[in-house]
Amino acid sequence: MPTSTLPLDFPAVAGRTVTAVCDGGDVTSDAGGLLLKPADIKLQLPPRLAEACRAGRQARKVEHTLLAMLQARIFGSAQGDEDGNDFDRVKSDPGCKVACDRLPATGTDRASQPTLSRFENARMSTELVRMGATLMATAGAHLPRNPKRGVIDVDPTDAPCHGQQQLSFFNGFYDAHCYLPLQVTVQGDGGRQWPAAALLRSGKAGPTVGLASGLRPLGRAIRRQCPRARIALRADSSFGCDAVLRLCHARALDYTLGLKSNAVLERLTTCVKAKLAAQVAQARTAAPDDPHAGDGLRVYQLFPYQAGSWARWERGGLRAEWTRGTSTPRFILTNRIDLTGREAYLHYCGRGAGENRIKEFKRDLAGGRTSCHRCLANQCRLLLHLAAAVLLAVLQDALAGTPLASAQMGTRRTRLLKVGAQVGQTCRRIWFHLPTSFPAQALWARLCQRLTCGPTGRESGAQDTGGTPSGGLAHVLRSCERPKDVRSLVIRTISTVWQGEHITSRP
What we know:
Layout: E1 8-13, E2 16-20, E3 27-28, H1 33-43, H2 45-52, H3 66-78, H4 84-89, H5 94-99, H6 113-121, H7 125-141, E4 149-156, E5 159-160, E6 169-171, E7 176-179, E8 182-188, E9 194-199, H8 211-225, E10 230-235, H9 242-250, E11 254-259, H10 263-268, H11 270-286, E12 298-305, E13 314-323, E14 326-334, H12 341-349, H13 352-364, H14 375-398, H15 409-417, E15 421-425, E16 430-433, H16 441-452, H17 472-478, H18 484-502
Parallel strand pairs: 4-10, 10-11
Antiparallel strand pairs: 1-2, 3-15, 4-8, 5-7, 6-7, 8-9, 11-14, 12-13, 13-14, 15-16
Helix pairs in contact: 1-14, 1-16, 2-3, 2-7, 2-18, 3-14, 7-8, 7-14
């Protein structure tokens, strides 16, 4: 690969010719990996996922370890690389190499596209189950201590297929051949929703397919963090069926589910609609000149309901709203006796934040890129993209109180991660020369301090040397030069302990 090309002349500016030449040296467009690295050190997710995979490879023939491939895959997805072809184009990028514990100038390149593809296709179902349990345990560990309630949001989405993928079927609702992966998030006491699970399902899977297998390990993870908290399930009307209700009763789960309208429900709500019409008439009488008088008025009502196929009576809820001259009813199901009709419906509306997380997962992390032939390989790809979402969630936690605290994932990536820098390497230090006009300098400094400092305010990993403690961003960069055998031993030890405590043990 040539280091330079012939000068390229562009239109003149202020009487001066504009010339471009490829001789700038080692430059990266992904300097934001420096922020992801300390977040990864806090989380230790790639080592734990590597421990979940079987170790059947011949060491003398291995160039890229499982940990190295997982780091490359997760970091690449977090920085906007959708699949192996995108990773292959930046495998020699100095910034990406530093994020994956490699020296920018003399370190080996990251894994290539064929290597990553073999990794995805080599995963067995037992490995994927352990990887999924690891991600669920991570989500449970990030809940606040001892919340009153842990809320699990479940929602299916489509992953379009454009080839001969296993278990892909035509879905009439989405009008395409697709998968229907189940996306799960968890939150505690109205806190931020944390990505917890992504379960690949066939294109014609029903709402209950995979639900029980997903709730069991996630419930255990929540119980470890919050042994006294009530666990609540929240989902749309596709889950308002007898099978899901029986599952919730059998697991002692609270639930707030959507309910599809039918003729019986319409008859039961006649009096509620009459009450709403009376309020609208009163509002129009008070403001006869306002053609929109009464718009937005709402009435809430709780009532007993039992469908013909259900085994028991359930507690139904109704919200009737007057919009554009007509009443629009919405129905829910809940067993939360501590909530009024209005509170129950507002709690149900909270699942909209989970839908936003799904949109970000598909749009910014290519969560719908299930282009492998084997369904297990596509499930592995879903879990790796989910791990990237977890890593970015840690970064979002560090952004609390900043202008980007509530920004979308793509916005945070553009402003913080996709940053150009010139990379230099000396005997003792790795330098990232960021632009002088970099607009996020102050925000970078704040994030570096928050991500590299522990609860005591001291930088994580800092050691006493008789002077100023070492750490911070320089400490993270210098970790690339440490002996890999010692570092790998520490990672394996920590991961083994974590696996024993959080996966194999019962709550």
